[in-house]
Amino acid sequence: MIRMSDIGFSYGETKVLDGFSMELHRGEVFVIAGPNESGKSSILKLCVGLLEPSRGEVILQGVNIYESAGFEMSALRQSIGYLFQHPALISNLTVYDNVALPLRYHTDLSDDNIKKRVDEKLDLLGIIKESKFFPATLSYNKRKLAGIARALIMEPELLIFDEPAAGLDPTGYRTVVSFIKRLKTEFKKTMLITVNSATGAMAFGDRVGVIKNGRFIFTGKTEDIKTIEDPYVKGLFF
Known about the structure:
alpha/beta; Rossmann fold
């Protein structure tokens, strides 16, 4: 689904990624684990063309995204559900209208069919009663769930979640972890997820990559991460 090869990326003089490479296979949940400011969010944005590397290539579903035509990228992005680290809901739209927005923008579905699909996703996330609420009136837990509903609304082939459990209270954390496991086992979704601890990787992933100094220092099956003696990797368990 995704192949990143020898990626270099910087913000000004600050080097973020240096020779970074990664593969995401169809049907798997791959987790990128690392502390804050280790480049995890940048990797996700590079995957979908929101950022451009200084070197290297990104192949997304067989397409080199930095050599593709605009219409190709538009079609590719419609096949991806993206959850930002913060839910990024539009403040002057209700939960319903936030989730419906991609359907209104990218499809010609009738209002009735849009309502059917939006209600289905809100019900799936347990927030259908909050459909008429504005984001500012909701708890952070509920805003995060609304963000996940919006990421799912186009029935994407690939889901990209940037620290989906960050900032949640214990109840919210359990709800999100349980739902991601359901996406994996019941809906068979391919997912790329970032977390800031190896413990988070254990909750979500089939495979995990631990990032340090702009590249992976470990990639492998998630259960194998517990056997790594590297103090940096051990320090990610908390």
